[in-house]
Amino acid sequence: MPLQNRVTPFGDIVALEGRGLVIGNRGVLHDENKRIVRHSQVRRWIACRLEFRGRHRQIMRPRSWTELFFLDEATALSAGHRPCAECRHADYKRFRELWIDCFGEPESPDIMDRHLHAERVARRTKVTHSADHASLPDGSYVAIDGAAWLVLGDELLAWSGEGYTRRLPRPARGHVEVLTPRSIVAILSAGYRPAIHPSALGGLV
């Protein structure tokens, strides 16, 4: 039985096989029986490398932060996580530079985290917004009929825990519900390129 530690583009923590390409942190979310008991503990939601300097962790160790796993970085961004300043320093630096271009100099990472937290969840419910299909950058996610779809070029790709499963032509116009927080959409539009699961670029799973 898989642990409840995979995160969807909606930000929900679910039980799925596999671990994806990215690990994330929202604080201590599990109890001593490895059950998820809270949605988040801190505002600093980060997305990290699976491997860094040979460090090893026991999954869901008591009283330690809960290891969350994402299909890819685009999924982590949709859920509201940003790059880690330690293990992904180059990505964090690029993200912060584009944040400054879009919104001005943040006094500290906590400024970004506070801003993002207000855009990603309200009373444990995912915050979404509406935008025109044509305005959305690659790497953002939209919701259609309750499912999450990645925006990539002229297509929308259906998310699953194992990879992208279907392709649809991207509508040229019309408004759609957007899952990726507004600030992150702006940073994607400014040129940030998130890592995307190989199934998006090759054969679907």
Estimated radius of gyration: 16 Å
Distance from first to last alpha carbon: 22 Å
Query: Poorly predicted ranges (pLDDT <50, ≥5 residues)?
Result: none
SSE pattern, N- to C-terminal = EEEEEHEHHEEEEEEEEH
Please tell me the overall pLDDT: 94
Helix/strand-derived category reads alpha+beta
Estimate what percentage of residues fall within beta strands. 15-25%
| Oligomerization status of the protein chains | single chain
Please work out how many helical segments DSSP would assign: 4
Care to count the β-strands? 14
**How much helix is in the residues?**
10-25%
Describe the global form: globular
| Main sheet attributes: strand count, strand direction, barrel closure | 6 strands, antiparallel
Strand order of the largest sheet: 9-14-10-11-12-13
Write the layout of secondary structure elements.
Elements: E1 4-7, E2 13-15, E3 22-25, E4 46-48, E5 68-70, H1 73-79, E6 82-83, H2 89-103, H3 109-120, E7 121-122, E8 125-126, E9 129-132, E10 141-144, E11 147-152, E12 155-158, E13 167-169, E14 175-178, H4 182-189
Walkthrough of the structure:
A hairpin with an 8-residue loop joins strand 12 (155-158) and strand 13 (167-169). It is globular, with a radius of gyration of 16 Å. The protein has helices at residues 73-79, 89-103, 109-120, 182-189, and strands spanning 4-7, 13-15, 22-25, 46-48, 68-70, 82-83, 121-122, 125-126, 129-132, 141-144, 147-152, 155-158, 167-169, 175-178. The mean pLDDT is 94. The longest helix is centred in the middle third of the chain and has 15 residues, at 89-103. It is an alpha+beta fold and 205 residues long. 20% of the residues lie in helices and 23% in strands.
